[in-house]
Each structure stands twice: as C-alpha cells, then as structure tokens.
Amino acid sequence: GGHVVPWPWGTLGAREDLAMTQHPHSRALLLLGVLVLPCVVCWSPSRLSAGCEGRGRLVVSFDLDDTLWPIVPVVSAANKAVEEASGLRGALVQDEMKLVRRESHGGDPMSYTHLRKEALRRLLVAQGHPSSPGTIPHTAEDLFTTWLEERNSESEKLVYSDVVPCLASLADQGALIGAITNGRGDCSVIPSLAPFVQFQVSGEDPGVFPHRKPSPVIFHAAMEKAKALGWSGEPSEWWHVGDCMDNDVTAAQALGLRTVLLSRPGLDGENPFSTKPATAAPRRGGEIPRRDDDHDDDDDDGGGGGVAHRTRPDVRLLSLESLPGLVFDTQRIE
User: Fold this and answer.
1) Does residue 50 form part of some domain?
2) pLDDT at 105
3) pLDDT for position 108
4) Quick check: helix, strand or coil at residue 69?
5) For the domain that residue 167 is a member of, what is the CATH number?
6) Which member of 12, 38, 46, 333 lies 3.0 to 4.6 Å from 16 by CB, making a disulfide possible if both were Cys?
7) Strand ranges for the chain from DSSP E
C-alpha cells in the first residue's frame, strides 16, 4: 500500500512517501521543485531564443562591408596586393572595370567577380603577359585569387572592436547568426567571425545573382538556410542589421523582419571603388549620400533592383555594443 504522490515523470510509492512523512518540509520542497524546475530550464540562456512556447531560434543577420569592417581600407589593401604581384595599379584596374561595365550595358548582368576578372584579363593581354618568375601570376584567375584572399585577410585585421563581443553575446544567448551581403566578404575564412556566423548568403552566389539586396530573393535564400538551422519562419523572430537604408532596412522590413540601421560615425562620403555612376540618393535616412545606391558596392554590379519606398528602422545604433541586450529584451517583453 502506501499513499501515492503525483509526479510529472510517474509516481512516488510508499517508501518515498514514508521518507516525506518523516521530514515534513520535504513535500513542500518537492512541490516547489515541480513548479520551478520547468521555468529554470526554459529561461536558461542557451534556450532563451526558443522559449517554452516552442518558438524557433531567434535570428540576427548582418550586412558585412561597413557594418562589421570598413570597406575602403579593405579594398585598398586587396588592390595593393594585386599591384605588388603584377604591377597593375588599383586605379588602372578600376578604370578598366568601368570600361567593361559600360561596354556590357544592355547585355546580360555581369557579376562583380566576372567584372574584375575580365578587367584583369584585358589588362594582362594589353601588357603582353610580362613574366617574372615567382612574382607575377600568369592569369586573371591568379590575380583575382590574390585580390580575394587579401580582401578577407584585411577584413580580419580591421573587424570593428564591438563586433566579436556582440556576436559572442548573441551566440551565448542562443541566437542564430547569419550574414547577408552583396559582396565577396566570407565570414567562414575570417577567423574571428567563423565560430559565430552559422550561415551566409552573397549576391554573387549561384542561384542568387543577379538578385542582390534590396531584392527579396537574396533574403529568401537566407531564410531557407535559417529554417534548416531552427528558425521558425516567423519574421518577428528575425533582426537584420546593416548600414544601408535601402538595401538593409527597407528591403528587410518589406519581408516583415525587424531592422537595425547601424550608422557608424565617420563613414559618410563617396566610395572611391565604385564602378557605377554616382547618384544623389541618400543611403541613410536624411544623411549625406555615401557611395551609390547599392551597398557592398565595391562588389556590386547593380543587379539588385530598386525599392518602392523608404521607411524607418526599428532601431538606429551608432555601434553594436548594445545590440544583444536590445534584441533579447524586446523578445522577452513580447
């Protein structure tokens, strides 16, 4: 016999009940544990983004250039590496890229990768492939690889100081972190970022190009990757962070995502590496125009398309320092 005490994982029989009778406070402690333990499990940091209601993982996606690192010194270093390897100055390559773009106007869209490779090929042909063993690559492919490797290497050196602490805090709290970029930045080969960024999509990717930001296609590609990693598909559980009003804020909000406009001080001005005609369209709501109408525009052929209207970001920040607290405080309140 013996009295039976209900328990979420079964029952307690006579022996356990006798022990509780001998210790009058045990029953109260046991019942308290039944009530409190599930809440403790649900509110542990690693499960915060999922919660007890069966919600999916909270997603925070980032633009890359001028969001996680400054693009102008990064591209300058990559151009310098090509010059040291081949003698082709960055300004010369840039002019040739503009020429290739003008000549291809009205034809099939040209990715920025193709644009740079074609410019390098034409310049190598024009100089007759001068060869100095060990110092000058023989093909445009070699030079492009040199450029791309230096681009990512310099990005690692110049990652803003608030980025890694922000990503680490988001990851510790269970967020799913991704990157959505029009350019060729690659978090998987940037050592300080690789441990945190779980998915990324580029406007240069097959299946995405030429649908760059602000096209919804690139965001939908990111959403498919996030769903495979635990995102519920609920737009309100996704925050997108970037420095461009059109490409990051308006485009993401059109899909129902939450947005953060990152306005780092000192980044206003024209992009010296753009291969497109300058435009007067302001990039940041009401601020001085910076670059042209496409973000990551050192890596852009302008295939993203326009946006219907401007809107206001959910949040505007000058740095990423407060982002993790803001994101998770908002989710808790809701």
Assistant:
1) no
2) 80
3) 83
4) strand
5) 3.40.50.1000
6) 12
7) 5-7, 10-12, 59-62, 176-181, 199-202, 238-242, 258-262, 315-317
Residues 290, 188 share a domain = yes
Same domain, yes or no, for 129 and 30? no
Tell me, yes or no, whether 209 and 274 share the same domain: yes
Mean pLDDT score of the chain: 78
* Predicted pLDDT of residue 130: 53
Q: What is the pLDDT of residues 181-205, one digit of tens each?
A: 999 999 999 999 999 999 999 999 9
Give yes or no: residues 65 and 20 share one domain.
no
φ, ψ for residue 11, nearest 5 deg: -135, 160
Is residue 51 situated within a structural domain?
no
DSSP 224-268: HHHHHTT--S-GGGEEEEES-IIIIIIHHHTTT-EEEEE--TT--
Which domain, by its residues, includes 95?
A: 73-151
Cβ(127)–Cβ(120) under 8 Å? Answer: no
Q: Are residues 126 and 165 in the same domain?
A: no
Asked if residue 184 lies in contact with residue 112, where contact means CB atoms within 8 angstroms, the answer is yes
**What is each CA distance from 165 to 60, 229, 315, in whole angstroms?**
14, 22, 19
How far apart CA 59 and CA 220 sit, in angstroms, is 14
Give yes or no: residues 27 and 176 share one domain. no
| Residues 233 and 245 placed together within one structural domain of the fold | yes
Kindly give, in sequence order, each residue whose CB lies less than 8 Å from that of residue 266, ignoring residues fewer than 6 positions away.
none
At residue 177, the 3 state secondary structure works out as strand
Q: How far apart are CA 203 and CA 181, in angstroms?
A: 6
| pTM higher than 0.85 | no
CA distances from 47 to 54, 173, 328 (A): 10, 7, 12
Q: Which residue ranges of the chain lie beneath pLDDT 70?
A: 1-56, 129-138, 268-310, 334
Displacement of CA 208 from its chain's centroid (Å): 15
Helix ranges (H only) for 87-162 are: 90-103, 112-126, 140-158
Whether 183 and 205 have beta carbons less than 8 Å apart is answered as: no
Q: Which tens digits make up the pLDDT trace of 129-177?
A: 654 444 444 689 999 999 999 999 999 999 999 999 999 999 999 999 9
